[in-house]
Amino acid sequence: MRIHGHTYPLHRRRGRLAAAGLAVVLTTLPLAGCADDGDSGSSGSGSDGNGKTTLSVGVFGVFGYKQAGLYDEYEKLNPDIKIKENSTERNEDYYPALLNHLAAGAGLNDIQAAEVQNINELATVQSDKLVDLGKADGVKKSDFLDWKWNQAKAENGKIIGLGTDSGPMAICYRKDLFQKAGLPTEREEVGKLWAGDWKKYVDTGETYMKSAPKGTTFTDSAAGLYNGAVSSYPHQYYSEDGELDYKKSEGVKASWDLAMRAVEGKMTGKLKQFDKDWDQAYANGTFASVICPSWMLAYIQEKAGDKAEGQWDVAAAPEPANWGGSFLTVPEKAKNKEEAIKLATWLTAPEQQAKVFQKAGNLPSSQTGLDLPKVKGAKHSYFNNAPIGEIFSKAAKDIPVSILGPKDQIIKQHITDIGILQVEQQGKSPDQGWDAAVKKIDDSVED
Questions:
Q1: For residue range 282-324, what is the model confidence (pLDDT) as tens digits?
Q2: Is 326 exposed, middle or buried (0-12, 13-18, 19+ CB in 10 A)?
Q3: By its UniProt entry, which InterPro entries does this protein fall under (predicted)?
Q4: pTM
Q5: Would you call 63 exposed, middle or buried from its count of C-beta atoms within 10 A (0-12, 13-18, 19+)?
């Protein structure tokens, strides 16, 4: 869930916001995005001087392994191993450095995390520099969600990374504001309002705005709506042949049109997600719903505060969609490659994924892990005891296998942060916003 700390509009902040408040969780976690206090400047691999092998783990933000006690547990199971985590706060800083280290074949951690928006580029361009973890002892394809497994598959069938978590989406909504606007408030009835079609979510927004409590809007942002909708399509920015073809994508067009409809209907708070104004809007209760991956729940709890406890609830999204999720990779040039493979496979095994979920809220990317009672039966006390384990697990299993491309993150960022925001915040026309996004994409991405 993360509670990872990227930067923070949409795709850039995927999760690593710790899921405090899970009914099954015993402790409250810090906000995601806080870097570990490990040194990110060097891998730290080698011997600790006491005959132990030090394995270095490079991550961005908070992956939850230290918080869930997994490093300590592994060290007890393997007394000759010591683990050092090197965390960079933001993926936008971490990933370019990883590419440089892979190119140089030096400065690498024994294990390197990878964000979902970058995994295709690694599988396409860097697969020869990464170990085939699909062949590692104890790794079972059947343990992982099919779509998650395939995201890390290179053309030659090599699996360059094992999934750590996933980011299935739901709709988080304010029961009190829905009630004042004359809408249903119970999560099952709320979910029926938009079941099966993102258009119905916007239809519900139109209904809300007719009786909206003063000073409120239906949803936080058009970019959030776009991100939720487009993520439910298998075809987004690239064709099956690997060609950049977002201009022809049905998913992009339909999702853009929905975002524009929401702007024109004054349904959005005109907010940029993860900015200070967005945080303040949670505290002030000025929007009634937000498209929320599993990892966002803790963020909402933190920003909305104690006064909103029980006012928020969680309903199923119109269609299954994913936002976020990471992988663990092992570089071929890792100093302790064989031991790193063992650690990476252990950390991503179903039982360990479930332990991280209990402590940090990162929803497993393991199908087996999702079915464990400690995951499937989880409820979130802050969100009116919503059965989040059931809601997000079901969504995760139904997510379509999307076609990923090497520049997905950049393309999506320009559509949301350039195109949509110009329309939403600057009053530009939809055509002007789209043209601005396309120009920026053309300048940034080689076809």
A1: 999 999 999 999 889 989 999 999 999 999 999 999 999 999 8
A2: buried
A3: Bact_solute-bd_prot1, SBP
A4: 0.83
A5: buried
